Amino acid sequence: MIGVIVRAVPDLVEGLEIEEREVVPYKYIANELDEYAVEQAVTLKEKYGFCVDVIGLANEDAYDDIDEALYMALAKGVDNAYKVLIPKTTSYSIAKALSDFLRKYDLILTGTLSVDEYYGVFGAIVSDLLNIPYVGGVRSVDIDGDYAIVKKELGGIYLVLKVKKPAVFGIISLEKPPRYVPFSKLRKIMQEREIEELDLDIEEVELNVKFIEPPKPETEFIEGSPEEIAEKLAEVIRGLIK
Amino acid sequence: MILVYAETFEGKIADITYELIGKAKEIAKDDEVWALVIGKAEIEGFGACDKVLHVDDERFNNPSLHRYVLKKIVEMYRPKKVLIGNTPIGIDLALALPTVVSCLDLNSTAKAISYGGKVFVEIELDCGIFLINKGSFQPLKVDGDVKVEKIDVDVDHEIELIEVVKPELDVDITKADVVVGVGRGAQNIVDLAEELAEVLGGVVGASRPLVDQGILPPSRQVGRSGRTISPKLYLALGISGAMEHVEGVKAKNVIAINKDKNAPIFRIARYGVVGDVEEIVPLLLEKIGGE
Fold first, then answer.
1. Under a CB-based contact definition with an 8 Å cutoff, are residues B82 and B130 in contact?
2. How many domains does chain A have?
3. Mean pLDDT for chain B?
4. N or C: which end of chain A has fewer CB within 10 A?
């Protein structure tokens, strides 16, 4: 059995409001690397017939937004979808509350990091709490009996590792682009399937953090019509590569 | 005690180790600074440390086992702070302990960068693990004698390194004088970027999304999990500039074109254009190509 963790994170394209004690996104989406983890799990299911569960983690504001990613996972071939309402707390607290539920899986996959993860690495914490191996930066997973064979990225090269199951892997990329799901299939799944809510007792922990907007860059911005911009840019480039 | 994890791979100590030692010495005050070397490696440049713990065992030439060694060392010696490079090897060493990821500075508080480079986070944390981004601190590499204590550590987990795969490179982007970088915003104009690179005597590089989508091969990837480039000019087209990418850019000059005026790439750019690459690049090619 494979369990995949998918986290709702701020949509960075839509922008953020940065307040001293809070970052308020305009919109939430599923963490991209977690969606890669779903893709990897579905590939393993197709190859070996594993049962795959997806577990969505979302705060109050993102609790409805995460549904689309979970239905999408079901449309891709995931067997069961669960979701968990998470309070304002740390990755450690969430992992601790979830660890009993995750214990049954042979493989637990998630993104190596989420875009808003600055305190703790979720997959690594889960593995420590379950006392099972962890490898992050993984681009592919295969199975060889009691072992998983993973490729780990390492700055232009990669390591091939043989890891005893059960294990947790942090996914960073895919060897093939994610599969396409037609909207009609997604709509059908949304009508037919349900997402089960998991009620977990997650301890709320308030971190002493302050959010700051980075200083404005000292960039010299080139302005004008596209034609003027191109003209000025060409001049700048010629100067720089002389 | 402050513990610095000396990143090693194939017997070589990674440069970031000395950046961590530099910062550790600065914040240590009366505390000692120890370095932890795991696996076979030549101990050099650790003269500024009070001690080196060396787990001198070739089993640990496999960096995927280092997190379990670190865990034992932390239990044995209880360091106040553990400094680790935020690299593909280092990030796997995050344990179930308070850990700051993508740390840019460390004093009484830790400063991290998050949300794709759009937010700084200041965290008050006296003890814990700090995963520090490359290039954040000045390196301190001091020759000279240092006390080396060899220790044995056993680990329970089975992770075997079967193979190190080093793909053949179609092009070496680290040697180019001009790199035209393409990101998600430029995925429709990769052909134009290639033309532009050719006219400028350079090569095309890419941010992770384009490599992940198979549009360009991994040899072109710039960043933490790709390659570090140091050209005279880096022309970043439709690249948002997440830390993952920016860490691999050591260019003399950066020009960035991006639709989003708040894109973090502008923080490293000398010149910037807020605009659509699909509109500007063809015109630029006309102007430059018309030489």
1. yes
2. 1
3. 93
4. C
